[in-house]
Design brief:
Blueprint: H1 2-32, H2 39-53, H3 58-68, H4 79-92, H5 97-117, H6 123-137
Helix pairs in contact: 1-3, 1-4, 1-5, 2-3, 4-5, 4-6, 5-6
Length: 145
């Protein structure tokens, strides 16, 4: 039982990071109707700023701050999160900030449990599998009315 609680908590934490990046992208898309995929670079910049000056940059900076405590900081550290954020936005629905939050948490939990049951190297396969399943069944996203 304890293992499952740890997996759920791990998935919620990871999903929270995904949700932060996706919410930033989704807010920008919702306001300007332009999809700017440079949030991975802002995540990296936020991680550098937290490391050197303890200052974050909005939602992407907050995600970078969380990652800087666990992972090595490098210029390319935000790229996988940008791709995952696009998956999360599609899960939640473009323009839905609440959908981004719920989609990020959902994807994080699915990845944590899926990696435990299969292999950690299949993380992106799980993410893309969920992405394709949602695109086929609910093309507008899970949380769009």
């Amino acid at each position: 039982m304890r293992l499952w609680v740890e997996l759920i908590v791990s998935g919620v934490i990871t999903g929270g990071i995904y949700a932060l990046v996706a919410m930033g992208l989704n807010l920008q898309y919702g306001l300007m109707r332009i999809l700017n995929v440079s949030h991975g670079e802002f995540l990296m910049l936020g991680a550098y700023l937290v490391y050197w000056a303890h200052v974050g940059l909005a939602l992407a900076g907050a995600a970078g701050a969380l990652l800087s405590m666990v992972f090595e900081i490098s210029p390319s550290m935000g790229e996988p999160y940008t791709v995952t954020a696009l998956i999360v936005i599609a899960l939640g629905g473009f323009g839905s900030v609440t959908g981004s939050l719920l989609g990020g948490l959902l994807l994080g939990v699915v990845e944590a449990i899926g990696m435990h049951l299969t292999s950690p190297s299949l993380k992106m396969v799980l993410s893309y599998g969920v992405f394709m399943l949602v695109l086929i069944t609910r093309p507008n996203g899970l949380f769009v009315r």
